[in-house]
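BUG: 3D viewer hangs when loading the predicted structure for this chain

Environment: internal workstation, default settings.
Expected: structure renders.
Actual: progress bar stalls at 90%.

Input used:
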Amino acid sequence: MAKIDDVILAKDLAKVYQMGEVKVNALCGVSLKVRRGEVVSIMGPSGSGKSTLMNIIGCLDRPTSGAYYLDGQLVSHMTDDQLASVRNKKVGFVFQNFNLLSRSNALINVELPLRYAGITEGRREKAVQALESVGLGDRLKHKPTELSGGEQQRVALARAIINNPSIILADEPTGNLDSKSGKEIMDLLLYLNKQFGTTLIIVTHDPEVAKHTERVIELYDGLVGGNKKE
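Structure tokens produced before the viewer hung:
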């Protein structure tokens, strides 16, 4: 069982994909802990298992074997519907490509997790507060096409925090931004971590991003190859 201070506890996670007659071992027994409120980056070359690990941590997929506890709850053997419920309540996602609804304004995009959760009371007010917290109080009615890349990522951040998740999982959050906007987003992620105490996990190829985190978890060939900065 996970300790109360461990928001993430993974034990011997393995993931095997069947590609025709070939078995691909994406994860080969990954074990790790992430403390509540910690800022961690996950790094590794292409094919190292980063995306597979991210999908399991984010409750988008289940391991072939092993155990995964999120916020003290064993989620590795849940059904798809159970995973979807946990994902909506406990995980905030930030993607490289923003993943916003192009025809909807910022307010509606940020409301989405609350809509999926069936929450109606105070939904609009919470979305406004979330957008104000990322500096977009004056962009509520703007659609993604009317916003810069940095502003779109801020909308994604507001959407990620609206449910007060246990973790924010950011996949290359600065990858599609210029250096100035990327720095602003990284600063904002760290601010939100300090402001709300939300655990922050960043999947990145960028050493400049990783150096802002408290700890680096390195993956190689489906295994954890290092868990501290040099």
